[in-house]
Amino acid sequence: MLLRRRLNLPTAFAGTPPFSAAPKRRMKHISPTQVAVDAPTRAPTRRALAKQQTRLKVLAAARRLFSEQGYEGATIRDIAAAAGMSTGAVFANFTDKSDLFREIMADDMEALTAAMRDAATRGRTAEDAILKIFMAGYTFYKTRLQLARAAFSVSWDKDGGPTLRGMSSSAAFQDLFGEQLNAAVERGELSQEAEVKLRSQMLFDTYLSNFPQAIFEGWSLDALQARARDQIRILLAGARRG
């Protein structure tokens, strides 16, 4: 009280600190994901759009020529002419013919894997599902056998072959066979000693082995189906229960 009188402070300020701290403001944390979402999306430039259109035209022309003339028969000059482009425009988008072909095959393999997976869902048993996977592949390439022939040719080329054979689609096909075999083991259709990984690889090799009959001997889809059914039956025979 004495101190208040000496400083001549109003009663209302008695016991009040000379100044009070401002309330702390909590900083809002913004994650990098939120920043990306909130950031405005930039529209592609005209140059980027033009480059994309050029790339699509080249791919379409290359697909057509590879299907008609095979890999060896189609040249970069032919592909450029079919696309209405210069050879320089082709090389501005692809390093060489094998790079162009791998791009086409990557697109095809993605579509084919989806078709095979869809076909497998309609199988009643493991044998039936795997046969449907085989036939989805043969049907996919029946009207484009030259493209399939080109794929086999490139896969054994010393330059482009290792890259093409190492594409993720090869592993995806084997995984698809493995899924069917594992499901059959869980259902009790196949034994626990079914050696799924080995049989998946064998099924994939068998699937590929029938393409020469389609490409060079003109086998029909019915003939391919009959052969594939027997092959699959034999490959799964040792894995059946009992």
Question: Which key phrases capture this entry?
Answer:
242 residues; Arc Repressor Mutant, subunit A; Tetracycline Repressor, domain 2; 69% helix; elongated
Question: What does this entry look like structurally?
Answer:
The structure is a single chain. The protein has 242 residues and is an all-alpha fold. The protein has two domains: 47 residues, Homeodomain-like (Arc Repressor Mutant, subunit A, Orthogonal Bundle), CATH 1.10.10.60; 142 residues, Tetracycline Repressor, domain 2 (Orthogonal Bundle), CATH 1.10.357.10. The protein has 13 helices and no strands. α6 runs antiparallel to α7 and α7 packs antiparallel against α10. The longest helix is centred in the N-terminal third of the chain and has 28 residues. The N terminus is likely disordered.
This entry's quaternary arrangement is: single chain
Radius of gyration: 32 Å
Helical amount: 55-70%
Residues in β-strands, percent: under 5%
CATH architectural grouping of the largest domain: Orthogonal Bundle
Report the end-to-end length measured between terminal Cα atoms.
102 Å
Average pLDDT figure: 83
Q: Write down the domain tally.
A: 2
Uncertain residue segments: 1-7, 9-22
Sketch the topology as an H/E string, one letter per element.
HHHHHHHHHHHHH
CATH superfamily of the largest domain: Tetracycline Repressor, domain 2
- Looking at CATH, which topology of the largest domain would you report? Tetracycline Repressor, domain 2
Number of strands: 0
Overall SS class:
mainly alpha
Count of discrete alpha- or pi-helical segments spanning 4 or more residues: 13
Major β-sheet profile: none
Shape: elongated
CATH class of the largest domain: Mainly Alpha
